[in-house]
Amino acid sequence: MTPRATYRFQFHKDFTFADAEALVPYLDALGVSHVYASPITVATPGSTHGYDVTDPTRINPELGGEDAFRALVAALRPRDMGVIIDIVPNHMGVAGGHNAWWRDVLARGADSPHARVFDIDWRERVVLPVLGAPLSEALAKGDIAVERDGGRWEVVAYGEHRFPIRDEDQADAGATPLARLLERQHYRLAYWRTANDQLNWRRFFTINELAGVRAEDPAVFEATHALYFRLHDEGLIDGVRVDHVDGLTDPIGYCRQLRARLGAAAWIIVEKILGAGEPQPENWAIDGTSGYDFMEQVNALLHDAAAAEPLGALWEDVSGRSATFEPEEFEARQDLLSWQFAGQLDACVAAFAALAVTAPGGDGITAAALRRAIERLLWVFPVYRTYGNGTDAPAADAAVRATVRARVAELIPPGEAPITDLLLSWLAGNGPGDAARAREAVRRFQQLSAPIAAKAVEDTAFYRYGRLLSRNDVGFDAETFALSPAAFHDVMAERARAVPQAMLTTATHDHKRGEDVRARLAAVSARAKAWQAFALRWVAEDDLVDPADAYMLLQTLVGAWPDDGADDDFASRVKAWQQKALREAKLRSSWEAPDAIYEDAADALLDRWLADDTFIAAIETLVDELRPVAEANTLVQVLLRYTLPGVPDLYQGTELADLSLVDPDNRRPVDYAARAALLAQGAGSRKLRLIADLLALRRAHPALFREGDYAAAAVSGAGAAHLLAFERRGDGRTLRCAVALHGMREWGDTQVRFASGEVAAADELFAAGPAFFVMV
Fold first, then answer.
1. Which long-range CB contacts under 8 A does 228-233 form with residues at least 24 apart?
2. Do the Cβ atoms of 212 and 192 come closer than 8 Å?
3. Given this model, what pLDDT does residue 644 score?
4. What pLDDT is stored for residue 540 in this prediction?
């Protein structure tokens, strides 16, 4: 059953199924059809997000367990509502001894029945990078000991990390010298700093606490998905959202297998980041993506292209860094590949070297040459990954390979172009050599390219580049500043054709700043001169903080500035954002080696600004100037999310102003009582009222929104570049929509001709506000 509209809940021990059940009447009154649940399976105790799954076979007791989940569904069904769940097939949480499968692997090694679950290179013992110092030093300091627990001996590090000891060693564990005992185990305790270089199992991005899962193994697929299939077969869920599908060995094959098991009626969407120009995932047997691409498209539409050059020049002048994003991405890819993925790169090179020797003339290709070629391909890769299997590849991959080949040309060492071409032929599935080795090599490349893209772009370059932070978010193309109405029509027409039931969202648990922070910062593009005057007045007033960091801090303050002014809580939230931003950028601080002196200086700058009445007056004056455009942007986002082809999602709490920052700030508790009261009274913000009105429209005309076409309107006149209009037609009805962009108010002769022939003047359409819709 395809949802009419979803509402995302972040479940954890302090927000349970029972809490959600109490809100069912509110969700029904609001007009959504489905609860969209964060992962519900057993996770690391106290997890606030659920993606660190420790047991995929059971519903998390911290959330209320299966009985409470059934009670939630029972409350929803009489109202013709349902549940979509977020599933995590790519990885499991392995920290803290809470994962029984992982503990069995550590105790029994490759002989464990669960060894096939995890993506481990068994040529050596499982590397566990948990020590605060090299093993020899930790042993000398007495940081590692052997203790009994429940009748069995265990290794204990720092009094808290516990690891099983082999059955063969239980009898004499207490008497065996510790160093010798550790050498006998199926794992090797290691200094945490060795993880990036020596880890011999696939992790999720750079997180040592999350181990990759081999969902491509049929037995593993069944074991890790049995609960989901049972819930669906029993009618308790209507579909799934697949987390990080690009981390899997064969995402397309996985999705088709999932569809075969869940059936044609299930709604299946995947978390997939689309690169610039990357097509929608067709022929995957899914309904589409979870909406980061839509969030990117709508956000780009809100930006005025005329501000791209002056804001780029301002950023370059202030920071001394590039006005464009491409150099930042290139440098970040180089940094991350060498800093944090050296171990995976080594394994990838080794796999291609093993393949090369099976190809004619391949014995003349060195591992070093292969490394140079692989590195350079990854430096310029335009998307998360390709989807070949070593012997074949989908047609859509050809354009990616062509782009890569063009980009990498100037980086290839003299005489080594044939090696680059050979690698691309293997990715295409038509390269020479052993087929099994080709599958393994291609797998390793594709499972490396995805995390490099995520960590280098979203978690590094986005924190280094500050032309305008509203264009730096998950799934965004920061190089592209704005999207014209004509270009937006094109991508919406393609959405209507290819994935008409994909998710539409403008806020998620992963976003780097809330949808209304982005809306306000997008307004800067329409008021660039006012922003420039403000920024230049304040950014250069501190000698201890790099101007680039001060400039991005100013943007964050403007974007998230509360309507009732800053308080201590706001200052604490911004400081938490700032610490994360500095450490993710990896320029003046980092998670691995925090620079407390610099971070304190940055916090001190914030404190001085917030204690300065002149600064407060200046920022509030700017926010007031941006407010009309920002509020219009908010309403435009809402209208488009609920009327364009797809299934709209409402992230928890964002029916009111979403001025959140990066996680965990965007997962703070929500005051649902206040929202329910406002809805019942027909009061509240224009945003809430517009959401409720549009959800009511979707409830009244489900066929139009589910099956209706998308027809762009023709716009003419002086304001044509600042107006988007379209129709949705179906089920005998026509929905006409128009939105005013970039704060435009003086329309002159601008008029709209809808596809059905109706002509309207822009002044008339926007007499009541920037978001117009009517059903005829």
1. 228/85, 228/87, 229/261, 229/262, 231/85, 232/262, 232/263, 232/266
2. no
3. 98
4. 79
Residue 614 identity (one-letter amino acid): T
Q: Is 334 exposed, middle or buried (0-12, 13-18, 19+ CB in 10 A)?
A: middle
Predicted local distance difference test score (pLDDT) of residue 541: 67
Alpha carbons 717 and 760: distance in angstroms, whole number:
12
Helices (H), 539-595: 547-560, 568-585
- Per the listing, tokens 């929509």 go with 737
Do residues 647 and 290 lie in contact, with contact meaning Cβ atoms separated by under 8 Å?
no
Residue segments in the chain with a per-residue pLDDT below the cut of 50: none
C-alpha to C-alpha distance for 590 and 608, rounded to whole angstroms: 24
Least Cα distance to 285 among 344, 242, 231 occurs for: 242
For 270, the token pair is 């995947």
At position 223, the amino acid (one-letter code) is: A
The model's pTM is: 0.96
- Measure the CA–CA gap between 69 and 413, rounded to whole angstroms: 58
Helices (H), 176-247: 178-184, 195-198, 218-233
The continuous run of DSSP H or E covering 591 comes out as none
| The pLDDT value given to residue 684 | 76
CA distance 209 to 44: 10
Q: How many degrees, rounded to 5, is the angle at CA 191 between CA 188 and CA 193? A: 130
CB 375 within 8 A of CB 345: yes
Q: Do β-strands 267-270 and 239-242 pair in parallel, antiparallel, or remain unpaired?
A: parallel
Burial 417-430 (b: 16+ CB within 10 A, else e): eebbebbbebbbbe
Token readout for 508 is 């998620």
**What is the per-residue pLDDT for 543?**
80
Residue 228, both tokens: 């989901």
For the chain, helix, strand, coil in percent to 5 are 50, 15, 35
pLDDT of residue 505: 98
Cα 69 to Cα 58, 236, 524, 727, distances in angstroms: 11, 9, 44, 40
Q: Is residue 269 within 8 Å of 500, Cβ to Cβ? A: no
Token output for 522: 């997008």
pLDDT at 682: 87
- The string of DSSP codes covering 657-720 is ----BSTTGGG----HHHHHHHHHHT-S-HHHHHHHHHHHHHHH-HHHHHH-EEEEPEEESTTG
What pairing do the DSSP bridges indicate for beta strands 288-289 and 267-270?
A: parallel
The H or E element spanning position 733 is strand 733-740
Q: Cα–Cα distance between 258 and 216 in angstroms, integer?
A: 11
144-149: strand order across its sheet: 144-149, 152-157, 161-164
- The pLDDT score that the predictor gives to residue 432 is 97
Read off the tokens for 65.
């367990």
336-379 confidence digits (pLDDT tens): 999 999 999 999 999 999 999 999 999 999 999 999 999 999 99
CB 192 within 8 A of CB 73: no
Tokens 């010798």 sit on residue? 180
Q: Are 427 and 388 contacting, i.e. CB atoms less than 8 angstroms apart?
A: yes
Cis peptide upstream of residue 664 (ω within 30 degrees of 0): yes
Instruction: Compute the residue count for the chain.
Output: 776
